[in-house]
Every structure is written in structure tokens, then in C-alpha cells.
Amino acid sequence: MIRSELIQKLSEDNPHLTQRDVERIVATILDEITDAMASGNRVELRGFGAFSVKKRDARIGRNPRTGESVEVEEKHVPFFKTGKLLRDRLNGDEG
């Protein structure tokens, strides 16, 4: 599902909200998650999962084309861990 499909589905499920309102709600939620992660915080949505940031240390990598050693800088990457309810639902365990 892409963002526009999510907005369309939420608009259909909530006819009292305009599509523009739903777009703002979705944008606000995603912006808040992004801002929290950029600040180094963890975001947990019970039953769905948790978003966090993991640090990858600097290392020596290889250029796949030439085989030459290359320094790869330290970086921070987003990480998502599924919640138990989501994991159970994906595996067919509704209970």
C-alpha cells in the first residue's frame, strides 16, 4: 500500500473528514515519527511495531567493480521491529 492508497482508504472509512483533512493527518503522523527518530527517540505503536535508529560503525568496504578498499563512514539507519500482534496476524495466528 502506498501513501495515496492509505489516504484514500482512510477517507472512505471516515466520510465525515475531507480528503484534505486525512492528507494532513497522515502527513502529521509521519512527520512526528520522522522528527522523533531524527532526535534519537524510539517510536512505539502498540500492536504494530517500533521504529528506532541504529548506528552503523565506520568500516572498510570494497568497491564491487574494482575490488578496491573503500572507507565507509559511520551512519545511522532506520530500523523497524514488528509488534507481537502484527507478527501473529501475518503468521495466521489471530488469537
From TrEMBL:
<dbReference type="Pfam" id="PF00216">
    <property type="entry name" value="Bac_DNA_binding"/>
</dbReference>
<dbReference type="GO" id="GO:0006355">
    <property type="term" value="P:regulation of DNA-templated transcription"/>
</dbReference>
<dbReference type="InterPro" id="IPR005685">
    <property type="entry name" value="IHF_beta"/>
</dbReference>
<dbReference type="GO" id="GO:0006310">
    <property type="term" value="P:DNA recombination"/>
</dbReference>
<keyword id="KW-0804">Transcription</keyword>
<dbReference type="InterPro" id="IPR020816">
    <property type="entry name" value="Histone-like_DNA-bd_CS"/>
</dbReference>
<keyword id="KW-0805">Transcription regulation</keyword>
<comment type="subunit">
    <text>Heterodimer of an alpha and a beta chain.</text>
</comment>
<dbReference type="GO" id="GO:0005694">
    <property type="term" value="C:chromosome"/>
</dbReference>
<comment type="similarity">
    <text>Belongs to the bacterial histone-like protein family.</text>
</comment>
<dbReference type="InterPro" id="IPR000119">
    <property type="entry name" value="Hist_DNA-bd"/>
</dbReference>
<comment type="function">
    <text>This protein is one of the two subunits of integration host factor, a specific DNA-binding protein that functions in genetic recombination as well as in transcriptional and translational control.</text>
</comment>
<dbReference type="GO" id="GO:0005829">
    <property type="term" value="C:cytosol"/>
</dbReference>
<dbReference type="InterPro" id="IPR010992">
    <property type="entry name" value="IHF-like_DNA-bd_dom_sf"/>
</dbReference>
<keyword id="KW-0233">DNA recombination</keyword>
<dbReference type="GO" id="GO:0003677">
    <property type="term" value="F:DNA binding"/>
</dbReference>
<keyword id="KW-0238">DNA-binding</keyword>
<keyword id="KW-0810">Translation regulation</keyword>
<dbReference type="GO" id="GO:0006417">
    <property type="term" value="P:regulation of translation"/>
</dbReference>
<protein>
    <recommendedName>
        <fullName>Integration host factor subunit beta</fullName>
    </recommendedName>
</protein>
<dbReference type="GO" id="GO:0030527">
    <property type="term" value="F:structural constituent of chromatin"/>
</dbReference>
